[in-house]
Amino acid sequence: MKKSCVVFVHGFTGGTGTWKNHKGESFSDLLSADNEIDQTYDFYEFDYYTKIASLFDSAAVVRLLDLFSFGSRKAKKNQPIRRISELLDTYVRTKLCNYDSVIFIAHSMGGLIVKDYILNHEKGDTPEPIGYLSLAVPHKGSIGGYLLAPFNLNAKELQPLNAYSDKLNNTWIDKKESIPKTQYYIALHDECVDEVSALPFTVKKSDKFTFDHDHLSICKPSDSNDFVCVQTSAFLKSRAYDFTMSELATTAFEPESNSYEKEIFVIKMILSEVGEKGIDDAKGSFFHAEIITKAADKKDRTTLQDLQKKVLSLYQQSYNAHSSKLEANEVFGLPRVF
C-alpha cells in the first residue's frame, strides 16, 4: 500500500458521474496516467446521499411504501453538512486508516464538507490531511441556494450568510495558518459560484487559479492536457515532495547502526587504515547525503552536484596540507574549514 491517498468529494446532487468527462474518463484516471503520481497515490471517491427534494425520496414516504411491499429502498434523506462531515470522518478513519497522509479534491458543497472535516480533524489521527483542492466551492454561499432553500436542507445551507456556512468560513479564516496546503480553483463561466464566493478570504496569487470552465465542467477535465488536470498534477507532486521532506527531516542518524558497515567506501577506508574517527565520520556523512539525495528534486540535484565538487576540492586541500604532519584520526579531528 502507498503512503498517501487522494479522496474526491462531490457536491450537491452529485455522485460518481461528477468526476467523469464526456468520454467516460474519470479525473483520477487522467491523474494516475502520470507514472510519478500513480506510484505515489491511491485514489478514492467519497459518496453520500444528496438529492433535490422529491416526494418519493422522503423518508416517511419510503417507509410507507415498504410497509405495503411497494419497494425495498433504504429510507434516506439529505443531511446537514456537519453530519456528512462526520460520515466522511468515519470513512477516512476506517477505510483509509493505514495511510500516512490524505489529500482532498472537492467540488462545490463537497468543499464545505471537507473544510468541516479538516477543522475537526484531531492531530495524530492517521491519515494526516496534507492538501486540499477547492473546486468552485461556495465558501461565502451561492445565490442558487435561495431557489431551492424552501424545500432542501443543503440548499438552505448554501445561501449567502447562512449561519452555519458563515461560521464555518470564519473558523477557516481564523485557522488559516494551520490548515493544510490549499489551492482554490475558480470556474470562469460559473453560473452558481462567483469568484468572490470561490475564495474564503484574500488568497495569494500562487494559491488561486481561474480556468476556462463552468461550474460542472471544472471537475471533469477533458484530457490530461486540460489545465485543471495539469495544475492538479503539479499540486499532488508538490505535496508528495513536501511530505517526504518533512519525514526525512525527522530521521536521525544512529552511530551504532550497522547499516553502513558494508558500504564500499567504508571498506576502502578500513583497508587504507584511515582510522576509527574517519570511518565514523564517513558513515554519518553518507547517511545525511542519502537523506538529502532522496529529498532532492531535479533543480536540487544540479545544485548538490556543484556543491559536491567544491566540498571535495576544499577537503582535498585541507587533507593534503595536514596529512603528512598528523595521524589519521587527528586529520578528521581538525576544525572544519567549510
Average of per-residue pLDDT values: 83
Strand order of the largest sheet: 2-1-3-4-5-6
Query: Which residue ranges are poorly predicted, with pLDDT under 50 across at least 5 consecutive positions?
Result: none
Intertermini distance: 42 Å
Q: Share of helix among residues?
A: 40-55%
Structural class: alpha/beta
Largest sheet, if any?
6 strands, parallel
H/E series, N to C? Answer: EHHEHHEHEHHHEHEHHHHH
Descriptive keywords:
338 residues; alpha/beta; 6-stranded parallel beta sheet; 14 helices
Provide an overview of this structure.
- The protein has 338 residues and is an alpha/beta fold.
- Helix content is 46%, strand content 11%.
- The protein has 14 helices and six strands.
- It has a six-stranded parallel beta sheet with strand order 2-1-3-4-5-6, sandwiched between helices.
- Strand 3, helix 5 and strand 4 form a beta-alpha-beta unit.
- The protein starts with a strand and ends in a 6-residue tail after the last helix.
- The mean pLDDT is 83.
